[in-house]
């Protein structure tokens, strides 16, 4: 589930909340839900989210039916180490529709001919021997700003607590400027002892696992 598209769809349905002043707070809370690092935290956080906004019946009915009861695979911890959006894939899809099939519905035999043409064109465009070839990046480009932020973060010299389980190792550290994390804080995070949605926000934004 693409987080970007999920977010856009939710924004389109915020009209179900009559008080426009609440729209920003609701979206901020949904962005917090998206940060859930596993299914257990996501389930607890969503229950507290629904409790917090229980007076917004129309919106919660839409949100529950559309994004909790069925398409609920939009939180970060569902699939780690993979992108949470598919924007790059969507761009490629649009290019194929606009430039190659001209948004026509093709029969399989006709699409096969077009497919061979697309592969041939893309192969030539990315031929490294050509002067104007499209460069295929083998590594992500890291900006100077990102390097600077990373360097400053490393200088904080944060404590990292590693806990090994049967097949995985979890690494815990505090976000922000804090450098030390206690066993009590780790246990509170692991046990998901959240008293309110506000507590969920503090934990998800403060602790990283």
Number of domains: 3
Helix content: 40-55%
* SSE arrangement, N to C: HHHHHHHEEHHE
Question: What is the total tally of β strands?
Answer: 3
Strand content: 5-15%
What sort of overall outline do the alpha carbons produce when their principal axes are compared? extended
Q: Major sheet: size, sense and barrel closure?
A: 3 strands, antiparallel
> Widest sheet: strand order?
1-2-3
Number of helices: 9
Distance between the termini: 22 Å
Mean pLDDT: 85
Describe the structure concisely.
53% of the residues lie in helices and 6% in strands. The protein is mainly alpha-helical. It has three domains: 76 residues, no CATH class; 39 residues, no CATH class; 65 residues, no CATH class.
Walk me through the structure.
This protein is mostly helical. The chain has 3 domains: 76 residues, no CATH class; 39 residues, no CATH class; 65 residues, no CATH class. 53% of the residues lie in helices and 6% in strands. It is built from 9 helices and 3 strands. Strands 1-2-3 form a 3-stranded antiparallel β-sheet. Helix 1 runs antiparallel to helix 2 and helix 2 runs antiparallel to helix 3. The mean pLDDT is 85.
């Amino acid at each position: 589930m693409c987080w970007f598209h999920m977010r856009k769809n939710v924004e389109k349905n915020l009209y179900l909340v009559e008080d426009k002043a609440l729209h920003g707070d609701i979206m901020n809370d949904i962005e917090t839900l998206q940060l859930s690092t596993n299914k257990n935290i996501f389930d607890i956080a969503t229950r507290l989210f629904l409790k917090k906004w229980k007076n917004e019946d129309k919106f919660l009915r839409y949100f529950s039916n559309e994004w909790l009861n069925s398409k609920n695979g939009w939180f970060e911890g569902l699939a780690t180490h993979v992108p949470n959006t598919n924007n790059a894939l969507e761009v490629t899809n649009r290019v194929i529709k606009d430039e190659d099939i001209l948004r026509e519905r093709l029969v399989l035999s006709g699409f096969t001919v077009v497919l061979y043409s697309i592969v041939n064109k893309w192969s030539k465009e990315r031929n490294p021997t050509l002067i104007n070839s499209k460069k295929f990046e083998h590594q992500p480009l890291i900006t100077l700003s990102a390097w600077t932020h990373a360097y400053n973060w490393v200088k904080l010299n944060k404590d990292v607590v590693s806990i090994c389980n049967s097949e995985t190792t979890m690494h815990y550290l505090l976000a922000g400027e804090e450098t030390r994390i206690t066993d009590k804080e780790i246990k509170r995070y692991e046990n998901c002892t959240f008293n309110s949605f506000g507590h969920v926000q503090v934990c998800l934004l403060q602790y990283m696992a």
